[in-house]
Task: inverse folding
């Protein structure tokens, strides 16, 4: 087992401080500030972790949504793709014209621009995962001047990439809104770096896995994943167990209650003593396989052009939210 050298240990919030310019962080839910989530649509509050391409929130629906129908959120739609992960309680949810009931073990995938609403009789705790649209506020739904038009052009390019390129993986997108972990097929996740298996949900902009590390990663160091990097941004949420992780040159340790944000193209590795159950969230790249790391034909060059434009939008537009820093 690799020892965590004392000179590598640097404080990051309440965990470790990793170089700010690498835009990587380790967070703990109990150290994050609770804020309103979307005033005007819901009175719920929660904590937020924001990346360049991903947003993660832990939200408690426990106050009337503002129209006397109970806790939850009033009807709304947005350009971000969204994943609801039920943690505690029951929630009735409308996606488009159809109503569903979510309970722990269920996941809902809401496509961009599809109207939805939530109603809860009792408290409902959940993870909110969204793709990020530079210039569009998750907080008050406003657009920075010029950003809506620019996003329309950029999304058209993404749609063209999505139509042209298919990733080599065992998780093709499905025409489905609500999933239950117990009913999903278990597959390997990244065979070249770990023998770990898990269950997966793939949308237009997001890929979401529930993974168990229990077997040696292939080099005798223990369970986990060997050193690697990828063009996707990544969020790691430990559920059970303790994870030792390296990002760039820095080692740190996390467990349940923590969140790790891994920037795109940043080398990292994971080592586990025993077992680790965790959620894995990545932004989807049309043509790039999270499964085996391959690129479909000239999709790598096409993605480089797309992400250049995305980064220009990110530089030009900052959303109006309490979470930008």
Result:
């Amino acid at each position: 087992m690799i020892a965590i050298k004392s000179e590598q240990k640097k404080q990051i919030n309440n965990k470790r401080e990793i170089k700010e310019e690498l835009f990587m962080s380790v967070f703990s839910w109990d150290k994050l500030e609770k804020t309103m989530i979307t005033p005007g649509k819901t009175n719920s509050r929660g904590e937020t972790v924001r990346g360049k391409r991903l947003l993660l929130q832990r939200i408690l629906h426990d106050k009337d949504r503002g129209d006397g129908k109970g806790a939850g959120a009033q009807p709304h739609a947005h350009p971000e793709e969204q994943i609801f992960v039920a943690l505690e309680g029951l929630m009735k949810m409308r996606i488009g014209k159809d109503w569903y009931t979510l309970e722990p073990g269920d996941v809902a995938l809401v496509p961009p621009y599809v109207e939805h609403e939530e109603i809860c009789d009792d408290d409902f705790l959940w993870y909110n995962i969204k793709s990020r649209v530079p210039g569009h506020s998750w907080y008050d739904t406003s657009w920075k001047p010029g950003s809506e038009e620019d996003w329309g052009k950029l999304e058209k390019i993404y749609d063209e990439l999505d139509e042209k390129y298919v990733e080599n993986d065992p998780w093709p997108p499905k025409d489905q809104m609500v999933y239950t972990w117990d009913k999903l097929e278990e597959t390997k996740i990244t065979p070249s770096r770990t023998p770990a298996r898990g269950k997966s949900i793939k949308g237009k902009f997001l890929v979401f896995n529930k993974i168990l590390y229990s077997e040696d990663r292939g080099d005798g160091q223990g369970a986990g994943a060997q050193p690697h990097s990828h063009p996707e941004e990544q969020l790691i949420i430990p559920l059970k167990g303790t994870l030792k992780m390296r990002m760039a040159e820095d080692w740190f340790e996390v467990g349940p209650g923590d969140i790790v944000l891994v920037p795109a193209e940043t080398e990292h590795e994971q080592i586990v003593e025993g077992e680790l159950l965790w959620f894995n969230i990545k932004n989807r790249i049309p043509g790039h396989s999270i499964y085996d790391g391959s690129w479909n034909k000239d999709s790598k060059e096409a993605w480089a052009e797309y992400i250049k434009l995305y980064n220009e939008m990110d530089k030009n537009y900052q959303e109006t939210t309490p979470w930008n820093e």
Summary: The chain has two domains: 9-26+166-306, 29-133. Residues 1-24 have pLDDT under 50 and may be disordered. The chain has two helices and 23 strands.
